[in-house]
Design goal:
With 370 residues, this protein is mainly β. It has 2 domains: 146 residues, Jelly Rolls; 164 residues, Sandwich (Jelly Rolls). The chain has 3 helices and 19 strands. Strands 4, 5, 6, 7, 8, 9, 10, 11, 12, 13 and 19 form an 11-stranded mixed beta sheet that branches. A 6-stranded antiparallel beta sheet has the order 3-17-16-18-15-14. The longest helix is centred in the C-terminal third of the chain and has 6 residues. It is globular and about 75 Å long.
Amino acid sequence: MYFSKGRVTRQAHVDIPEGTVEEEYAREGFAGRVSHLYRSHPPVDWINIEGPLKPVALNTERLPNRNDDWITGRVPFLKNGDAVLAWAELLTEMPYYFRNADGDEVLFIHQGEGRLESDFGSLEYERGDYLVIPRGTVYRLIPSQPTKVLVIVTREQVRLPDRGIAGKHALFDPAMLDTPELGPMPEPDRHWQLKVQRQGHITTITYPHNPITTVGWKGDLTIWRINVRNIRPMMSERYHLPPTAHVTFVTDTVVICSFLPRGLETGDPGALKVPFFHSNIDFDEVLFYHDGDFFSREGVDAGMVTFHPQGIHHGPQPGAVNAAKGKTHTNEQAVMVDTRHPLQITPQGESAERSDYWMSWMTPSNVENK
């Protein structure tokens, strides 16, 4: 079934009728049933919002209780029963090993470099790396430079998405995933602690030797590493692709996307270049801004996080459409985390919140009318 009423464009995101803006009203995170609404005013043309759906922006540099311990220094800022998003900073090597029995971990290295030691061996990490660590893996980080990390913990296992007709080599060939290498056994010259997290509690196990005793391994369950520079974004010169075109990792209830420098829609003067208005009916949306020029968002710098709950509209801010007209490429790096079930902002997250973020869509006339 397909219906069309009133003034519309035949091709979504292209040749939007003059005097209107386009909203994509979609299910299943843009992959399900969809309609496009053509409005005389942007759905973000508000003068006030009261209630828990108010869009949130927070600065990770303002999160409280940060310290140089991998467990106690993690600061959770958004969470639900499926995922926890936290911020961690590490200046010195971990004096213990860690095993998370609550979920898989995706570590996005925002700053720094160093080495990860694990059951599967060692690998180096650097800025822009994703490290995917399966539930139950023993590991520790040894930074050679101060390291700042976006930590995403998921209850379900992290896997690669099904890329459908694009093929499994789209965005990145699975061969681009690096895995740890076994090297010389760590020196067993002292007692070592292994801290295991289960249901949020820590159990400490002490060994008379280094707990990394692996002399060989085989299989398809291990740590993955890929840097954002090795991800090749999907592009279209004549059509603005939805965020689902940029999916990097998935679970049953969490989607992780990478927005990277890419060519804009220069093949058709009527093609939309900026994200279309939408309200994420089935997913909460979180964006972590890593690097570059975030042309559809003013006042957002690297290290900031925006949170748009299910049911509240968002899209390009005023002026973004005109600002994009002369651009041919984006120059942004950002990590998007979408969750099937609603996220709750933590007290730590609230303390780092930019309270006026919801006003960033308001036109000057609406600010005056407020």
